[in-house]
Fold:
Amino acid sequence: MYMIIDNQKNDYINQLTYFLVKNYDYIYLEKHPKFSENAKFSETDWQHLLRKIQYKVSWYNKQLAFVAPDTKESEEKCFTIEQLGRQLTTS
Structure:
């Protein structure tokens, strides 16, 4: 059971990072986002996503920057993992 979930999450991270790199020349991410205890996307998953996206931006010659949103306005302009996932599955 856990292997299936891990494979699904790994596939999701692969698709998401490819989607981001394919569609954006500049990608901005939080280095250390906050995770709730009951979140489906854990700190470990985030680290896995970071490794994948760092590799892919290098491979596709894109730009990756880390930001720390400090205002409500900047937070509203950023996509969440869930929003990107919905966009990925509908495209």
